[in-house]
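comment on this one:
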Amino acid sequence: MSSEKENIFYLLMNQLAQGIGNNTLVEAQIKKVYPQCKIFGVDNNPKMLGDFEKYGTPLILSIGGTETKEPIDILEKNGFIFQSDVKATPIDLVIKKYLKTNIIHFFSLDIEGIEYRVMNTLMPGNILSREDITICQVDVELHSAKWLNLIAPNKMITKEFSRNKLVKDFIIKSYYLPIVILPYTMYKHLKITFINVLSKDCDKAFNFQKYFF
């Protein structure tokens, strides 16, 4: 990471099932390493924020790829509450309205299927690139079809997207390169870290090129 005194933006988007979930261990570590980092967390349940405000700004809303009604499952302390008629806020509007920046250094997604729609916005020619919004690093949990088929409201995701195709498209068609791919849980989710290997701003912040040349 560059030692310059610049703003580092971290957008946590694991709002749907787990939410911020009263767990801020990662945010505490990020603040320790990057004290200048501006952290934003998205959760649609204000009861599950824990002590997030010690480290960043919570946003009480649901995020999607477009302004649609999404199949959302909200985590309460006593279990899941399924809602299939929750209005989503497009990711580009969230970034422009609340973060007020055109570069996100860390982008974390764990959103029980909706990550496929959000990831699609990062592809060249889609909304984030058209709005000149740069994402440097994406840490995403791509949920398996087996899991999504168990979550009644999210079954439609498996009909719209193929996990293998999405990963392949990112490798072939985008400027994101996967550097970590790990299986996760008995349901065979995938934890993947993508880095932006084209942006000069990202290379200035992280010096990604040193790993390739």
The chain has eight helices and eleven strands.
